[in-house]
Specification:
By secondary structure, this protein is mostly helical. It is built from six helices and no strands. It is elongated and about 55 Å long.
Length: 111
Amino acid sequence: MTVTKAAVDFGRLVRATRKAKKLKSWKVAEQVDIEVKHLGRIERGEKRPSFELIIALAEALSVSPARFFEFEAAYADLKAIKKQIIRQLNSRDVAQLLKAQELIAILFDSQ
């Protein structure tokens, strides 16, 4: 099977989602009842998962299956995004920073 850009993008998003959830590949593979090598191949874009496996991966990672098809997110430069946020915060006073902190906590459902 030929590796396609869509398969690579899909795999990057699966891997990024798994890592963001701080889950080991063996644990996710176990949850969806596949070999860890198969998950690795999916994450590298070498294998295309079935519809059922996409659903199982989404459930195991607690996301919508649509998350794996948001290909523009696969190319987001995490360091550049963080630098941009820090630049925006650097020019704020204490009251504005407290508001930003509150909004971030609400946005990410954490206290």
